[in-house]
Amino acid sequence: MTAPLSPLPTPDDIVAAHDRIRPHIHRTPVLTCDTLDRKTGARLLFKCENVQKSGAFKARGASNAVFGLDADRAAQGVATHSSGNHGGALAYAAARRGLPCHVVMPRTAPRAKRDAVLGYGASVIDCDPGVVAREAALAEVVARTGAEPVHPFNDARVIAGQATCVLELLEDAGPLDAVVAPIGGGGLVSGTCLALAAMAPETRVYAAEPRNADDAHRSLKAGRLITEDAPDTIADGLRTSMKDLTWQVVSRHVSDVLLASEDEIIAAMMLIWTRMKIVVEPSSAVALAAILNAPEVLAGQRVGVILTGGNVDLDRLPWMTARTGETR
């Protein structure tokens, strides 16, 4: 179940979201890496949402949704379904406001992300993997609790909050030729597109996606929304497909969807850890992996790269499981 759809956020909505969430989020740094510049042939400026509150950019959209609720709507709390980062972000924002929070999570969600949701005081409701199972379980939770549903991405409040990420990137990094961000459900990419269309329309947007979960790539090529339920990729945050609001934006504004294989994602994650000395999760590494896989697209350009999150299970790092032959 999702909240009733509302119009796409306006530039004023994005500015208002930034003012609303400012006390509740970090203004994350923009970092560079000469080694990665040489490897890609581009000047890369990394917006480090891996050090954001709750460990991911999702804190922006969740905080905007939670702190934008009036008292009557907030009284019953909030609820969502999530593979991890949105659930943790909503739990964080709800805790800041003192609201109950209920998060439906697939049983396959990484333990670190499940622990984060519980650590913020939210309740976790298990479900089978896949969007159909998640949405059915959420509908039951909302019917039982009366909580306000906050969709992980197909919600104008969430999209406006995510848009604040690129607003800060522009302020700190200056003019950019392009921005690359990972895409799953498309909330971050949609927010990025809307903010850039208003504030830097000459800047192109590229989405980055695992080859194993390439529904956004196929959708853009086909000119229609194509969805996939529970694809198998190490980038657990990108296993969801777009819905009507996010597809509406992506179909109009994204220049292309760049792809990366599972091995390329793992290699890019290792590069970021070793060369930049920061912790990112596989979904974050998809953006760099896609750039490395198609360097000719962005060579010689100033490119913003959004590192979306840093929530990893340290007992099951991808290069460790690859060596031992464990299944993901």
Word description of this protein:
The chain has helices at residues 11-21, 34-40, 58-67, 71-74, 85-97, 111-119, 131-145, 156-173, 187-199, 215-222, 244-253, 262-276, 282-293, 318-324, and strands at residues 30-31, 43-48, 78-81, 101-106, 123-127, 148-149, 178-182, 204-210, 254-260, 302-307. By secondary structure, it is an alpha/beta fold. It folds into two domains: 11-57 and 155-324, Rossmann fold, CATH 3.40.50.1100; 59-149, Rossmann fold. Helix 8 (156-173) packs across helix 9 (187-199). It is globular and about 55 Å long. 55% of the residues are buried.
Radius of gyration: 18 Å
- Overall pLDDT confidence: 94
Strand content: 15-25%
Strand order of the largest sheet: 1-2-10-7-8-9
N-C termini distance: 28 Å
Gross CATH architecture of the largest domain: 3-Layer(aba) Sandwich
Question: Which class of secondary structure composition applies to the elements?
Answer: alpha/beta
Work out the count of structural domains: 2
Number of helices: 14
Largest sheet: 6 strands, mixed
Outline the low-pLDDT stretches: 1-5, 323-328
| CATH fold naming of the largest domain | Rossmann fold
Number of strands: 10
State the CATH class of the largest domain: Alpha Beta
Share of residues in helices: 40-55%
Query: How would the global form be characterised?
Result: globular
Helix-strand string: HEHEHHEHEHEHEHEHEHHEHHEH
Keywords: Lyase, Magnesium, Pyridoxal phosphate
GO biological process, one term: D-serine biosynthetic process
InterPro entries: BHydaspDhtse, Ser/Thr_deHydtase_PyrdxlP-BS, TrpB-like_PALP, TrpB-like_PALP_sf
Pfam families: PALP
